[in-house]
Design a protein that fits this description.
Four copies of one chain form a homotetramer. The first copy, chain A, has about 475 residues and is of the alpha+beta class. The first copy, chain A, has 18 helices and 23 strands. In chain A, the strands form six sheets. The first copy, chain A, has a seven-stranded antiparallel sheet with strand order 3-2-4-1-10-9-11.
């Protein structure tokens, strides 16, 4: 549902726990707090030490996991997943964790991110006789593990990981251990927590908080962490690492109560808003934010600019897969979908509308119009990120370069297209400083590829072509 | 689900439309925007001018109304209802609108409010041979209409309304007309809008906005408005009227984008927060609000006090009827339910926590503890309403006087019970002024009964007894 | 689903039990064995002596009663119902038992049969101010009970029953007793059984057998039997009684393993077939029956005639509400629905096809064609009942006289219409003798109205008019 | 559900169609008529010539295929499957057809039968790096096809088939062709039909009849038949063939209206009954059969012996996955499950009870007791097959030799165990002659392995061990 508003979607959140008698229930609450990362499907695989049992389906966490179903998968450890389905990749089969049984034991896999050499590897594996059951790039890892010559699962996994390029936070579970791995650039967030004697890993720290776990530390780029009945141990599967955490995690994806690499998301957003007030001082009557992700930035802007923050836009909640979309004719008659303007707040006012990003521009245009129809005399759009000019190959669904309005238009052109009275983007430097990471270097440990075009990994030709609208390479 | 947090629930929202070919779809979107007023059940009755067809069920609007089902109830007019089920009153039968077929035609009824003489009337009607199908007080009106000696439906309805005491916004529909009536004290909100040639009535103006309708005016206390193919006409069924709009609509129930009797709810709340900052200046590092209903007041407080507003508490969304409640044992281990503290924001800080009201005090205590466990050094609770010391008989589910903490304890006692460093309620005068209604008189057109004990209607003994914990009177 | 094949449907089966800790489960099995009497809806009301709890829905017994739901309605007594929905009378509301709560206690009602003066009574009750929730005639009894001046429930019920005309087997339950009543002509079957200390009543004895109960006796026409914690007691509410059991119970409706008024249904059918072989000796190669209801008669015919019985037609099972009906175009291409011919059995053969009755003739025609297309050289249709020339007003859905082929055509005309090589009906005398009831008199205790036009009760003008295709009288 | 009664279950029925615009709908009706071959799951894969779309689920055909879902899979060709789930092999994943997508195209597989070297092949394939998604032996074929060195799908399939041992009727579909293959011994039935220009294949001819198709011929052992837009063509993938059709297809599995290798099933069963009357003449009052599969044999016995056939046992229908099994305590109180005796028919009678086979003997014992409790004075059990003394490895679920009562006990011992007054099995010669196949040789083209222990294929050690109760071999 976010897709419609943003045209910007991350694929997935992951959660795992080892060593707790209520592993399945805790995974349920953990996944629930990660629901914002994917609403199309949810699943978990639970082990009691003997067998692996899976439970998954399309829909929200509360739809997929019924009370009865959860009781059926009791165990001491579990990994879980919430999924945002990219185009063409839907269906029950693609809901994760993937679960594989073989005569040597079982294997469950959950993945957040995107592999840039998945097609190349898949092509090679199929040529060698492998059959893929899903259209997800995640399955590639299973086949690489299966074909590895090593004996120990841990070695097979390390061996397989070295062949992957791209962004990944992987959770792997067998009957006797849970292993988590983060790509050598640390493109996706992954944190470790502790709840009594149990260890937890999760895409965001909010999932640790919600289940009452203590934060231990973040998984390092290139690190493989193994949890079993002996506890936790770690080794590096790659030493050629950098820190390149996806900046959009701060700006858009993560929950405001999460800390990503030590920085609280709400605070980062508020600082982005403050910085924006500094970079783009505007005379106006009210500041408003596009809910939910831009509220913190809007409050920051208002505070720094000394202009009252008001709730000028409201989001309609309770929207899920079963929500009936208004017909074109009803939309033309004015039936609203996800956002409504608050006439009582914006009527007759000069409005500063804070949003976190512009992807295709269609949503911004709709909101500006909405505010003007509700009586705003001026609408100044301020964006708490720099223009997104390059496609993401690491799990963010900005399909193709074609669709990125900022890749083809100047700021002034965009302003005209979205019909705003003024339009300001935050500078790249402003973003980096406002987020305030402690790391060294120009990017301060962030991936800025979508803004700057400097990708931390090599990029495969099939992805580049696809990003220009070409068909599949293989 | 709000019940758990507040112990304070309104029963229902209503929506009606006459004269639109997409009446059922529009009612769907209207009810969807009123979902916050009741999540236990939803229903609509649609007419094509010939017959009345009903569609209802337990659950959310998006659960009850499937795409296929909506197609089945095409018509030119519809009334709809979202329901919060009070204890003992659940079940399919009690979901509204109620629909009655007789050999003379059909009748549909939707009701927001509570009748104070329902039991007395029901007892009398049963003695005369009537059989009640539901346990809702709404059905009383149907029986009174049926037994009225008048011929015209409009006269039968007026005749019946004169026998009712209490709070009600009624929508009544037959094959040929839609009638809406508001009790003589105007205790419940009810607004009229226009969408092309169609008329709309709704509990809140947000439902008019969402479907693109223009606000026409509010229904008056004691007014009966009739909509049919000729248009809209009105008459008073009572001239002995006052204005006593439920104050909690501003403070807690309504959506921030609604205007209640001409006052925007978000603005009212922000003003309540500002007034609170004036009445209760506190030295602190951050201001935070309990989501969702107290955010506006918190921002108002922060603005007025010059203390930064921060997101110190976050609400877990996607919670519906199917959400699995954590077991006692998991709660004790720290699994959160609806609210989580944001450690990154409150740790090491003196926190002002703005909430809209205190009913039983259990939630406040839980939140204070949560914030302290997350590292807050001080937690100052400020409440944007006066203490609730008296039960409501008009549709707010504050069960019994017993459970109202402020009816038995002083402010200092409550402070100790909720373990806050300080506790401040807003004064009654402060509330009235901050809301800023234009009406004359001490209450400025609001019902303040739950704060002051001055009830605008007579109160029946069975309700008083029940409010003290006694059983049913009849 | 039988409707399509026969155009002849009974409305409902009833089951009740008093005094067993597993009352709900036993009712489930009892209703399941009565499923052939109604597949559109099922329900039960259970009491634990304190309250009445209902559980009902549209669909089959196994669809409506889930394992969880049954656990929710534990109690010591229950009444249940399976329903065949007549046109216009569908919907959740009309599924029985009906359950009424009042300030004096609760009342549940289940009904098999049809009242001939329901409309007249309903009209009168509505004029007096009653509101009907359902379109079923059953609700009339509830209102009559409610309006009765007597104090004891038992007296109120007797008082109400004296106002009813028509066919009824009623089960009535309150918190403290279960009462069953059979109309003064005994038009519907109702038997009493005993299971340990519990008493059971059921439409057919097969329901007693299935739950392991012993048969005690049949309920008498005009009898009211009361079951409570003291046991069973009986009184007559009418002494003006006759015996007029619906003949179609033997011929078509009941399960072959049931005994109706002491006569086993399979045996009666086999005797009908034997008698038919005697009345209509035909030279042929094989005898076949239309499943399921005509198999016994076909075997009887084959045995008496010395011609081999073969399975020339087969029924497609697993057909329920969710079965997708083949489109007209697929039917024309030969897609079968409920019956298939067995080519291997009928090809090149002269076939005697035994059926139990002809209502509209469309099914017979389809089957004759089917057999001929499968290679039968001759098809002789023999019917184990007399021609149905008159509508039923007692609960059998033979809509209107118009549709009864035998009311407008001679046997020879019907033969031509159904394209059979010969057609024989059983004589009325033959039917009566073959069924072999022990009672005295011409009809031997059976209602033969649909064959002879001699109705055991008075008939109201609105029903007569309706049976000629006229609209509702009131 | 048959499992409980018989302890004897076949796994699956298959249906395929090429070249019809309503391919999906026709497959629905075809599978529906094969429902008796498997009630645990159903699925179909449809192609429009461009892509393959699958639709499957656990439950009955009418539960899995909703009207909306069928509309979603329009196409010109389809293959479908109904499944009986063996122990440990349940779950959504194992429901067929299996559907595999690869970068070279898609492949769908449906299978009836059982491979005796599946484990050996699976072990080998896993060692080579293949990952199996299901626990079904069917998937082995997909991997063999994938790993074949040939280019043409047809050659890859032939290449793969030569590696399989056991019983199989395979349906394989790609975007451009449907291929069907029968094992070299013809252990499973598979027939070809024609409906206008479309070709159909089905496990039984009843599925051809139900959709209005004409029977063309049976698929030959070792034959590969290919259907595409050019029509039908055939080639042999093995010339080392025999005819060894499973005898239990005649005796128990198939629908009476099907012809298996040219012999009508009902007729075969009736002849088995007649032969039994000749081999085992018994003095008795009535003959009855265990429904549904033994009715034809019982009628044959009755006809030949001149003793009346009566319906002494009745089956409770409408039983599906959701049926609530009676608790042990209710069963002890006499609650019946699938069969009820008809007291009115058997009381005081000497009963000949015809059944088709005895597997574990527990059901026979229960039925004998049931009949005696219902008043039968003598119960003579006659079985229309020879004693089953050997396990089946070709798809019939007779678990292990341990459970076959006839492998450990003499006929007299069995008689005592089942508490019958006499017990007669048909002789092997009697079976062969009664079925009356035209083929030459001792077995007349039938597999008699479960009676004689002479298996038509080689048998792998892991299966032999499993049949003695040992665990998995690999």
């Amino acid at each position: 549902m976010l897709a419609e508003i943003k045209g910007l979607n991350e694929e997935c959140g992951v959660f795992g726990i080892w060593g707790h008698p209520s592993a399945a229930e805790i995974t349920y609450y953990g996944l629930h707090s990660l629901q914002h990362r994917g609403q199309e499907g949810a699943g978990m695989v639970v082990t009691d030490g003997e067998i692996l049992k899976g439970l998954k389906g399309e829909g929200l966490v509360t739809e997929v996991f019924t009370s009865d179903a959860i009781k059926d998968v009791k165990g001491k450890a579990a990994i879980g997943h919430v999924r945002y389905a990219t185009a063409g990749g839907g269906g029950y089969e693609n809901v994760q964790p993937l679960l594989f049984h073989s005569q040597n034991g079982s294997l469950a896999l959950a993945h957040n991110g995107n592999l840039v050499n998945a097609n190349a590897l898949k092509h090679q594996l199929e040529t060698q006789g492998s059959i893929f059951q899903t259209s997800s790039d995640t399955e590639v890892l299973a086949h690489l593990i299966k074909r590895s010559g090593f004996t120990l699962m841990q070695d097979r996994l390390k061996n397989a990981l070295t062949m992957l390029k791209g962004a990944y936070a992987f959770l792997v579970m067998t009957e006797t251990e849970m292993m988590v791995a983060l790509d050598p650039h640390g493109l996706r967030p992954l944190s470790i927590g502790k709840l009594a004697d149990a260890y937890i890993v999760a895409s965001e720290t909010c999932a640790l908080d919600i289940v009452g776990a203590e934060f231990v530390r973040d998984v390092l780029p290139g690190e493989l962490v193994i949890f079993d009945d002996e506890g936790m141990r770690s080794e590096m599967f790659s030493y050629n690492t950098t820190k390149a955490m996806c900046t959009m995690e701060y700006i858009y994806f993560s929950r405001p109560d999460s800390n990503i690499n030590g920085v609280n998301v709400h605070t980062a957003r508020k600082n982005l808003g403050k910085r924006l007030a500094f970079e783009a001082p505007i005379e106006a009557d009210v500041v408003t934010g596009v809910p939910d992700s831009s509220i913190s930035a809007a409050i920051g802007y208002a505070e720094a600019a000394g202009i009252p923050y008001e709730m000028g836009l409201i989001k309609n909640r309770y929207v899920g897969r079963t929500f009936i979309q208004p017909s074109q004719s009803l939309r033309e008659q004015g039936v609203k979908m996800k956002l409504s303007p608050v006439r009582g707040v914006v009527e007759g006012k000069r409005v500063i509308m804070v949003d976190d990003s512009i992807v295709r521009g269609t949503t911004s245009k709709r909101i500006v119009r909405m505010l003007k129809e509700a009586g705003a005399t001026e609408v100044h759009v301020v964006i708490s990120s720099a223009p997104i000019q390059n496609p993401c190959f690491y799990g963010i669904d900005t399909s193709s370069r074609e669709e990125l309005i900022a890749s083809k238009h100047s700021v002034e052109e965009i302003r005209q297209l979205i019909e705003a009275d003024s339009l300001t983007f935050l500078s790249v430097e402003g973003m980096v400083e406002a987020i305030g990471r402690q790391e060294e270097g120009e990017t301060r440990g962030s991936c800025l590829a979508c803004f700057t075009g400097k990708y931390p990994t090599e990029i495969y030709p099939d992805m580049l072509l696809a990003s220009c609208g070409a068909g599949p390479f293989f």
